[in-house]
Amino acid sequence: MRPRGCPGSREQDRPDGAPVTIIDGQIIIGFDRARLAQALNMEQQKERPSFGAAIADASKITARQGLGITLGAYVGNVRPGSVAERVGLVPGDIIIEINMQRVATADDLEQALSKISGGGRISLVFLRGNKTFTTEGTL
């Protein structure tokens, strides 16, 4: 039996009644929440490719640069061949929207990306200097 929404996992009952969960070959006996969460997180990360860019809170960086406060996710290094590079992001861009959801912090972007599975479409609105751009791509 597979717990809902967890591909590659199954649960079995042991004779003494303690649950045994197997996720991608890892056996977890009992209710070890930390190990279950870690194993499920690893399984989900396998399904979604990395975005491929270092991200930080834009408000902190723009304030430090004396540019006022700009909300969004600041793009740092972009890994060659990554999703971020394929959609055209470069260091210094500030992502302000993903899939029609406002992005005010790096956390907002990470949370939105975590809900999109591999192969899912993304639409981004970002700032580059004083101009606003829109781009689309696939995770």
Explain this structure to me?
The chain is an alpha+beta fold and 139 residues long. The protein folds into 2 domains: 9-47, no CATH class; 53-138, Pdz3 Domain, CATH 2.30.42. It has 4 helices and 9 strands; from the N terminus they run βββαβαβαββαββ. It has helices at 33-47, 58-64, 83-86, 106-114; strands at 9-13, 19-23, 26-29, 53-57, 73-78, 94-98, 101-102, 121-128, 131-138. The strands form 2 sheets. Strands 4, 5, 6, 7, 8 and 9 form a 6-stranded antiparallel sheet that branches.
Q: Output the CATH class name of the largest domain.
A: Mainly Beta
Radius of gyration: 19 Å
Largest sheet at a glance? 6 strands, antiparallel
Overall number of strands: 9
Mean pLDDT: 79
| CATH homologous superfamily assignment of the largest domain | PDZ domain
- Give the second-level CATH assignment, the architecture of the largest domain: Roll
Specify the oligomeric state: single chain
Which percent bin holds the helix content? 25-40%
Number of domains: 2
Structural class: alpha+beta
Q: Per the principal axes of the C-alpha atoms, what is the gross shape?
A: globular
The share of residues in extended strands comes to 25-35%
Distance between the termini: 29 Å
Topology as H/E string?
A: EEEHEHEHEEHEE
